[in-house]
Design goal:
It is built from two helices and four strands, in the order E-H-E-E-H-E. A hairpin with a 4-residue loop joins strand 2 and strand 3. The chain has one domain: Alpha-Beta Plaits (2-Layer Sandwich), CATH 3.30.70. The protein has a two-stranded antiparallel sheet. Strands 2-3 form a two-stranded antiparallel sheet. The chain has 63 residues and is an alpha+beta fold. Bound molecules: FE3-S4 cluster. FE3-S4 cluster binds next to helix 1.
């Protein structure tokens, strides 16, 4: 599974980082978020992050 963060929507709420710190990472000064391919054992956490993002900035896709 692939995860993409729409950086035009992300406001840096960091719910995703809290829920799935192995997948999401905040980049210091910019306050922007970086994401990567999702390991199988992180899929559930990423789904929780998608649901928790207040601005629906996290998008999922198939590999
Ligand atoms: Fe951004 Fe949403 Fe995460 S606003 S920092 S993608 S919880």
């Amino acid at each position: 599974m692939q995860v993409v963060v729409d950086l035009t929507r992300c406001q840096g709420y960091a719910q995703c980082v809290f829920l799935a710190p192995q997948v999401f990472e905040l980049h210091g000064d910019e306050g922007l978020l970086y994401a990567t391919a999702v390991p199988d054992d992180q899929v559930e956490r990423v789904h929780q992050a998608v649901a928790a993002c207040p601005v629906q900035a996290i998008l999922l896709g198939e590999e």
